[in-house]
Write a structure and sequence with these properties.
Length: about 130
C-alpha cells in the first residue's frame, strides 16, 4: 500500500527502502577519501534505522520499544548528516537523489519523534 505521494505507508518498508536506496546511491558517487569514509557511515546509519525498527517491533517491553524508537530517530538524524556531507561531484542528478534521501531520513526522524512523544505523553497520563 502507498500513500498519495507514492511513499509506502508501512514503516518497515520505508526504513528498508531508505537503506536500500542509500546503497544504490553510494555506488555511483565519485570516489575520494572523504566520500569513502562518509559512505561507510551512511551505509551503517541507514541500515541501523531499518534494523532497529525491526527490533522495536519485536520488543520485549514498552521500555524496550521506546528505546529502539529513540535509536531509530538517532540513526535517521545521523543519516541526514552523512548524506549532507557526501560530495556529489557537481552532478545535478546525484544532488537531486541526495535531496530526496535527506528528506526521507528527515520524515522518518519526525515520525519516530512523534511515536516517542506520544508514548511519553501516554506515560504521563497514568
Amino acid at each position: 500500500m502507498t500513500e498519495e505521494n507514492g511513499k509506502p505507508q508501512a514503516l518497515d518498508e520505508r526504513t528498508f527502502l531508505l537503506a536500500q536506496n542509500v546503497r544504490q546511491f553510494v555506488k555511483i558517487l565519485p570516489r575520494s577519501l572523504s566520500n569513502d569514509e562518509d559512505i561507510s557511515q551512511i551505509v551503517r546509519s541507514s541500515g541501523f534505522v531499518a534494523a532497529n525498527y525491526i527490533e522495536a517491533n519485536e520488543a520485549l517491553s514498552k521500555k524496550d520499544f521506546f528505546m529502539r524508537m529513540k535509536i531509530c530517530r538517532k540513526e535517521a538524524k545521523e543519516s541526514r548528516l552523512w548524506l549532507r556531507l557526501l560530495d556529489c561531484g557537481n552532478r545535478d542528478d546525484l544532488e537531486k537523489t541526495r535531496v530526496v534521501l535527506i528528506q526521507e531520513a528527515r520524515e522518518l526522524m519526525l515520525i519516530f519523534n512523534a511515536i516517542i512523544a506520544k508514548g511519553e505523553q501516554h506515560k504521563r497520563s497514568f
